[in-house]
Write a structure and sequence with these properties.
Elements lengths: L3 E4 L2 E4 L4 E7 L10 E7 L6 E6 L6 E3 L7 E6 L4 E6 L8 E8 L13 E2 L3 E6 L1
Parallel strand pairs: 2-11
Antiparallel strand pairs: 1-3, 3-8, 4-5, 4-9, 5-6, 7-8, 9-10, 9-11
Length: 126
C-alpha cells in the first residue's frame, strides 16, 4: 500500500495555476504526527524541496524559486496536504512528490523524509 498518493498534476500554459493534493492512507502513525513536504524533480536535475509544513501547520518553508507563488497547506481531518501553485513558469515543469517526515524540526532535506508518494507530473508550456 502506497502511503501517500498525489493528484492534480497536468499540462498547462505559463501563468496558470494548479492545486496538487496528497492523500495519506498508509502511514505508520497518524497523519498529524508528520511534517509534510512537497518536492519536485525535473529531468537531469536533483530532487528539491519546494515547500514544507509542520504537523500542526503553523510553520512553513519555501524554496526561493517558488516564494510568493506557491502555498502549502494541510487539513489533518482529511489526512491531506495541498500545494497551490500560481503564476506557473516553464521551469516549474517536473514530477512533484509529497513526503512525510518525523524529524523534530521542519526540514528541506529529502533524506529526512521516510515516506513518499509516487509523484504527479506538472508540465508548463511557454
Amino acid at each position: 500500500q502506497v502511503p501517500l498518493v498525489e493528484s492534480g498534476g497536468g499540462l498547462l500554459q505559463a501563468g496558470g495555476s494548479l492545486r496538487l493534493s496528497c492523500a495519506a492512507s498508509g502511514l505508520t502513525l497518524t497523519f498529524s504526527s508528520y511534517n509534510m513536504g512537497w518536492f519536485r524533480q525535473a529531468p537531469g536535475k536533483e530532487r528539491e524541496c519546494v515547500a514544507a509544513i509542520t504537523w500542526r501547520g503553523g510553520t512553513t518553508l519555501y524554496a526561493d524559486s517558488v516564494k510568493g507563488r506557491f502555498t502549502i497547506s494541510r487539513d489533518n481531518a482529511k489526512n491531506t496536504v495541498y500545494l497551490q501553485m500560481n503564476s506557473l513558469k516553464p521551469e516549474d515543469t517536473a514530477v512533484y512528490y509529497c513526503a512525510a517526515s518525523l524529524w523534530s524540526s521542519l526540514t528541506a532535506k529529502s533524506t529526512l523524509y521516510g515516506h513518499w508518494g509516487q509523484g504527479t507530473q506538472v508540465t508548463v508550456s511557454s
